[in-house]
Write a structure and sequence with these properties.
two-stranded antiparallel ribbon; Helix Hairpins; alpha+beta; five-stranded mixed β-sheet; Heat Shock Protein 90
Amino acid sequence: MFINKRDIERLSADIRRAIDGEQIDFRENSEGVWSILKNDIYTLSSRLNEQADNLSREKSGMSTALADISHQLKTPLTSALMMSELLENEELPPKKRQEFLRSLQNSLEHTEQLVLSLLKIAKLDSGTIDFKREIVMSDALINSAILPLKVMLESRNQTLNVNCAEVSVVCDKTWTSEALTNIVKNASEYSPDGGEITINGGDNALFGYISVTDSGEGLTREQIPRLFERFQSANKRGGVGIGLNMARTIMRSQGGDIEVTIPNTFTLKFFK
């Protein structure tokens, strides 16, 4: 096929328009080298446009996340600043001073937990974590996960029932314990004082599992689609909507998943 100067000039003009962001259909139905070239350019243009769209969405998502993070940090930091200013009053009664000190400590602990969670999310988002593939017994995983929550459960007089068959799963113990901790913590936050949390577990031909059931009011079907989105917590006890998102990201990064069963059961699945 003969390629004349006008064809080249037209193609060059189309390429410049595509670079400027215009949607150009380079496809050519005829045969020959010219057709192959134009179709290859079309493929390249489509992929570049797709990458540009992805980057735009990521940038928008990052801006939203940073705004949410800023908002979440502002509340405990503002509270801590206010308490510290009140504590400067030398005439403050001892009882009030102790009250303000406890409030200041709670605000700082909240801030620390939030920052640590956000750092973990950043690591997960980067995709640079090298998850270990360890054979872990279910009881060891559960014990590791509930250890940091014992004080919270006791303070709310909540009963934790563990009815888990002794099974082995393949996962990164440290990160998976983090996921399970977040699920149990979520169950505690949505259960009433004096309520119960039950952990069951076992395996079948497809996967091993650990499920967590709380005694709260339970979820509605309408809540499920956005349940694992960040900063979407409906928790009235001060949650910020990070834990469930982190837990699912950890599980999916290892080839597992988290299943939600209405009204109030979360199941970690370890596929074989």
